[in-house]
Amino acid sequence: MFQRWKSQLIPEINLFPIELKGRGVRSSEPFYESFEEAVDDIYSTINSSIKGPYAILGHSMGSWLALEVYYKLLQEGKSLPIHMVFSGNCAPHCEKEETIYHTLSHEDFRLAIQKIGGAANEVFENREIFAIFEPLLRSDFKMIENYCYREKSNKIHCNMTIMTGRDDKKVKSSDLISWKKHAGANCNIFKLDGGHFFIQENITDVTKVINQIFSSYLV
Q: Which BP terms from GO are recorded (predicted)?
């Protein structure tokens, strides 16, 4: 996906995807035991690898990780991002769903995740493919369901952008507005064509928004 993004982003943007444990080149590493462990891992990567002005974008569960990483950077007195982009989720202080997904049986889990759009459609069309992704999905839901948001004493100092897919079953209009609670500067909301995975389905509009955001910092 990010290779397709690169072809449509302005040349001044250097895309740096952060790989999480259990995915991609880190697929041999065990899944995170907790949400906090994932936050610490991302924080360490940013702290050791990112130089100069930067922004953070998080989608779905990644939006909550991005928020907590921002506050860890603030707490540790590190260089803060110039912009935060939260995508495909409500703010973490919103009331959680009562359903606990990560303990469901195999078939109930598959049907439940399919219903809420918790993975790309092609994952559900082939049961063998779903069996490959199931441990990762369960781990992600376990992290989310065990995550306990704590109120923050500071707002996010930089500008924020909130993005969602118009057809995302998981994210309501009120969920988008919920992010403004954390805004200490400008907060813009974009509804783009697509479902929960609009960042894969609608790369043209997504990259257009990103280019628009960061072009303003180049003036």
A: lipid biosynthetic process
